[in-house]
């Protein structure tokens, strides 16, 4: 190809290197000059033009792109017409994009003039979605290079770009049960996994629940294997940590095989792939309860498309397997101890606090419950004093527009942010509070203003448990297996928390990131008790007097027999101050 400045009297057949505006029209890049267009250019006073003249061994860009595309495109791929050296490929149906990555790399390494760009292999797609583009770098491909590319593709003997459509599969979901798990966990698991399956074209799954017991699970899987099932998903009540654990052991007990345990995808490390009587069996990781993309999706999509998946396929998921920004996960066997787990001094954490106090507190009648007193101190005062005594490095209080709660704060050195529209839901208060957290803070503890039993030691236990280096990113207090408040969140979740609406608050964020939640055992039930009724207020006062606490005491209030506090992890309105 001769790419140079061509005299106009020798420019017939030359392809323009750049667009030229002439006589109210534009001659685009790649336009082939003829006598008419040469005369128009000459009328502008030009004597030469920059462009390319193809030689006998050059294949025009459109023809070369079309030939490469025809060789690469496989089943269920729609090919657009070649234009300016480019051909686009589109999905003709819903399904899984399969790209022969070694072949595409080989093609792109042959000659710089021939380029192929594709979606990543194993990408779920909709019909009509663009899959790839073949582009010849202007204005032609050298014939020897083109022939080498076509020969390389032919030797492979298979299409490099295809769609494996979703099949209508019959699937079963087995959930194993442990006594401490709440019913809502099973409901969310069934909803999340069922929605995935149906999105991939499967029928509504058969759902069974059995105890987290090797024998009972083996019996359930054996029964399902006698049915016309294509896929069995087992969502365990606890993570699979070894091939001798309940789920893989139950599978092998009935003649199944464990193909692979563990995958280099995060989140989704603790996944099991197995086979039983020709059926795929997936031991789902805990993150499968979340609707967010995780490693479970990659394996499930292969199965739904009828594509083979073996141990080495899972091993190859590692490149591109980091699906989101996460810290290291704590080991499943590790106890949720609030103390340090590494040698050497523990890092001093910069953790802030956000006290939510914008509710009108009207369930108890006027005045706002937060200004009512226990042992001579406003309800909100007990929470603020505990926070100020703790190792929290900063504190923000979010109140409503009324002045009584702000007056009850007194002279305590805490900034106040006003939520002018508490009726919009506590998510707005949460968003306002997080927005006020200092830039240097690594995390924030979200406190409820109507829990006077919370003390500095509760807060300091959460701060001690927080360790982003060990994947301890959300710290939830627990007493005798029940989760409560307050809760600590790493800063990386602030944006997601601030995007919540209504009264959901941080509940959905915890559910979506259970893999980085650490449960921190607390010494008493103060994390479960809020003040919502006159009876609860009187009981807290009586309990304090029974222990001989002086008025306005700085000591933590004893736990009174109150209704359980709305938990950030489970309540539909975790920061309700009404």
Automatic annotation (TrEMBL):
CDD domains: GT_2_like_f, MoeA_like. Residues 181-290 form the MoaB/Mog domain. Residues 353-516 form the MobA-like NTP transferase domain. Gene3D superfamilies: MoaB/Mog-like domain (3.40.980.10), Spore Coat Polysaccharide Biosynthesis Protein SpsA, Chain A (3.90.550.10). One of its GO terms (molecular function) is kinase activity. InterPro entries: Bifunc_Mopterin-bd, MoaB/Mog-like_dom_sf, MoaB/Mog_dom, MobA-like_NTP_Trfase, Nucleotide-diphossugar_trans. Residues 542-578 are annotated as: Disordered. Keywords: Kinase, Magnesium, Transferase. Pfam families: MoCF_biosynth, NTP_transf_3. The keyword Nucleotide-binding does not apply. This is 4-diphosphocytidyl-2C-methyl-D-erythritol kinase. It comes from Tistrella bauzanensis.
């Amino acid at each position: 190809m001769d790419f140079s400045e061509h005299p106009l009297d020798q420019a017939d057949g030359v392809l323009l290197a750049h667009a030229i505006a002439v006589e109210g029209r534009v001659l685009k890049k790649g336009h082939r000059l003829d006598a008419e267009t040469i005369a128009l250019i000459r009328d502008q006073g030009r004597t030469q033009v920059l462009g390319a003249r193809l030689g006998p061994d050059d294949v025009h860009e459109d023809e070369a792109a079309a030939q490469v595309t025809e060789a690469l495109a496989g089943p269920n791929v729609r090919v657009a017409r070649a234009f300016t050296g480019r051909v686009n490929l589109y999905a003709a149906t819903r399904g899984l994009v399969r790209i022969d990555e070694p072949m595409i790399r080989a093609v792109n390494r042959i000659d710089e003039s021939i380029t192929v760009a594709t979606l990543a292999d194993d990408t779920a797609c909709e019909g009509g979605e663009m899959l790839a583009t073949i582009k010849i770098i202007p204005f032609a491909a050298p014939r020897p290079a083109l022939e080498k590319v076509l020969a390389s593709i032919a030797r492979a003997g298979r299409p490099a770009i295809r769609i494996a459509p979703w099949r209508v599969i019959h699937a079963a979901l087995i959930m194993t049960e442990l006594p401490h798990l709440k019913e809502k966990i099973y409901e969310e698991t069934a909803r999340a996994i069922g929605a995935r399956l149906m999105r991939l074209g499967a029928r509504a799954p058969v759902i069974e629940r059995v105890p987290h017991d090797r024998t009972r699970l083996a019996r359930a899987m054996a029964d399902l294997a006698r049915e016309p099932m294509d896929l069995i998903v087992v969502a365990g009540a606890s993570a699979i940590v070894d091939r001798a654990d309940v789920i893989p052991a139950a599978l092998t007990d009935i003649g199944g095989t464990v193909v692979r345990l563990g995958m280099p995808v995060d989140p989704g490390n603790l996944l099991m792939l197995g086979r039983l009587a020709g059926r795929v069996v997936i031991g789902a990781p805990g993150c499968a309860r979340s609707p967010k993309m995780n490693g479970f999706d990659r394996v499930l999509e292969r199965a739904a498309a009828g594509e083979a998946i073996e141990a080495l396929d899972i091993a190859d998921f590692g490149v591109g397997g980091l699906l989101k920004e996460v810290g290291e996960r704590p080991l499943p066997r590790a106890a949720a101890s609030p103390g340090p787990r590494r040698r050497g001094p523990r890092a001093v954490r910069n953790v802030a606090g956000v006290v939510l106090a914008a509710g009108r507190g009207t369930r108890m009648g006027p005045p706002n419950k937060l200004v009512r007193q226990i042992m001579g101190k406003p309800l909100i005062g007990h929470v603020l004093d505990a926070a100020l005594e703790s190792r929290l490095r900063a504190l923000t209080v979010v109140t409503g527009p009324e002045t009584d709660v702000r007056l009850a704060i007194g002279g305590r050195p805490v900034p106040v942010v006003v939520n002018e529209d508490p009726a919009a839901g506590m998510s707005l208060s949460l968003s306002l509070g997080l927005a006020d957290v200092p830039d240097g803070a690594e995390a924030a503890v979200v406190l409820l203003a109507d829990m006077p039993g919370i003390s500095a030691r509760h807060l300091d236990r959460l701060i001690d448990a927080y360790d982003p280096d060990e994947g301890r990113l959300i710290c939830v207090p627990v007493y005798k297996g029940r989760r409560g408040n307050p809760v600590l969140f790493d800063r990386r979740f602030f944006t997601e928390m601030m995007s919540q609406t209504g009264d959901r608050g941080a509940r959905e964020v915890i559910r979506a990131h259970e893999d980085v939640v650490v449960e921190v055992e607390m010494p008493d039930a103060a994390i479960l008790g809020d003040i919502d009724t006159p009876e609860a207020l009187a009981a807290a006062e009586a309990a304090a007097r029974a222990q001989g606490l002086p008025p306005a005491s700085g000591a933590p209030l004893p736990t009174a027999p109150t209704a359980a506090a709305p938990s950030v992890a489970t309540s539909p309105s975790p920061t309700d101050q009404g």
